Amino acid sequence: ILAIGYLSSSLLHALWNAIGVLSFFLLAVIGVLSYAFLGAAILKARELSPTRSQNFATRVSRIP
């Protein structure tokens, strides 16, 4: 999953740099696509992360 994230973000960044010179409309399309990838990554991270009751970092004591 991490490699896919790195590759997709580097591809979007390269497209942003390359397309910015050519067309403002294509730049907007790449920007919207980047936000879509960001939203998908956030949703996937929420799916993978434990719930608050299972997360050890949010507990003050061992008593549930």
In short:
The protein is built from two helices and no strands. By secondary structure, it is mostly helical.
Question: Roughly what is the average pLDDT, rounded to an integer?
Answer: 85
What portion of residues belong to β-strands? Answer: under 5%
Judged by helices, strands and strand pairing, the structural class is mainly alpha
**Unreliably modeled segments:** none
**Tertiary shape:** elongated
Helix percentage: 55-70%
Order of helices and strands: HH
The end-to-end distance, rounded to whole angstroms, is 32 Å
Number of separate strands: 0
Using only C-alpha atoms, the radius of gyration works out to 18 Å
**What is the domain tally?**
1
Biggest sheet descriptor: none
- In DSSP terms (H or I, runs of 4 or more residues), the helix count works out at 2
Polypeptide structure, described:
The chain is an all-alpha fold and 64 residues long. It has one domain. It is built from 2 helices and no strands. The chain has helices at 2-19, 24-48. Helix 1 runs antiparallel to helix 2 (24-48). The radius of gyration is 18 Å and the shape is elongated. The chain starts with a helix and ends in a 16-residue tail after the last helix. The model has no long low-confidence stretch (mean pLDDT 85).
